[in-house]
Amino acid sequence: MQTKDLLQLAEEFGSPLYVYDAEKIQSQYNRLTTAFSKVDSLRINYAVKALSNISILKLLKQMGAGLDTVSIQEVQLGIHAGFSPEKIIYTPNGVSLEEIEEVAQIGVQINIDNLSILEQFGTKYPNIPVCIRINPHVMAGGNTNISVGHIDSKFGISIHQMPHLLRIIENTNMHINGIHMHTGSDILDVEVFLYAAEILFEAAKHFMTLDFIDFGSGFKVPYSKGDIETDVEEFGKKLTKRFNAFCKEYGRDLTLAFEPGKFLVSEAGYFLAKVNVVKQTTSTVFAGVDSGFNHLIRPMLYGSQHHIENISNPKGKERFYSVVGYICETDTFANNRRINEIKEGDILCFRNAGAYCFSMASNYNSRYKPAEVLWFEGKGHLIRERETFEDLIKNQVVFEFEPQTA
């Protein structure tokens, strides 16, 4: 997308505004499938939690993707978007047995990550195929909040609990058709993936009824020009070779699965916000925008970096600004960032706004959630309307107080 296109969309649909470039999503999907083109059976399950707009799901469905879901609501969104149940995997954490049972009745692939629920589910439904999420005890990821495969993580069944796991499977006679892991997000070192993969391969040898091995995801994307990223092509060559060799050792071909979210949609996303005020203090120049962490919480939640451009003045002289929001508490997008000179009314563009941005938005301070637009074949298409006051009060039930008497 070009700057003029973003400015046009901000003018047409208002701000703040999320914009997603369909071509970038498509190119990322193709990049991943190309990297693993020498695997006979590859399955890409898009992680719905990254960005769950139905139009985005439909775009990925058109490309051949399946879905990775973590809640029954995400499963229902996938079905609503036209995915067949067998193209969806459900990997919850800490949910009730009742929710898992409800999802199982829909017919999607169940992925269980704790021994208690596994035993209960296997006892009641031994004939329903189940995938097992293993915790390989590998510390990986760009932040402790997104590292999920280490020893203190709440996710997965510890690799050291394998004897207990096998005893449950033997006692229930349940059908295990997949094995899964996810070590974390923003993983840069390919060798970390390969090391964890070896642990998963070793675990897979205990289950002779597998149809697939799921390696999760966690590929790092660049957050600024020249930033480093996971070398997906190198990873594809190395893991393909090892996976194909394992299949021969295992005795038959298996499906290799991934669950990318950020990798597919992060760079495709742009968040546009208008500058309400430029405020000079004794030590800082603040650029205050018509948004806040209610719309884009990642910088405040875990220090994520989003490149910020003043697309209204792309050739202006660079100055230092702290970009802040309008929420009534500390609400900072960037501190002392070099940005082309900013004036009130300018449009700032936040890059890498496709993943975990709108999906984590809220109505804090009773602000409306932004609109979403899909840029497809050179044109902007509204895929979510901006909220209104009616949306804020839609589900509220007003309690009528009796008039006080003297």
Structure write-up:
This protein has 12 helices and 18 strands. Strands 1, 11, 12, 13, 14, 15, 16, 17 and 18 form a 9-stranded mixed beta sheet that branches. Helix 3 links the parallel strand 2 and strand 3. The protein has 406 residues and is of the alpha/beta class. 41% of the residues are buried. It has helices at residues 3-13, 22-35, 54-63, 72-80, 97-106, 115-124, 162-172, 190-204, 232-250, 262-265, 298-302, 389-393; strands spanning 17-21, 42-47, 66-69, 88-90, 109-112, 130-135, 157-158, 176-180, 212-214, 255-258, 269-280, 285-289, 308-310, 318-324, 332-340, 347-350, 371-376, 379-384. It has 2 domains: 22-263, TIM Barrel; 269-386, Lyase, Ornithine Decarboxylase, Chain A, domain 1. Specifically catalyzes the decarboxylation of meso-diaminopimelate (meso-DAP) to L-lysine.
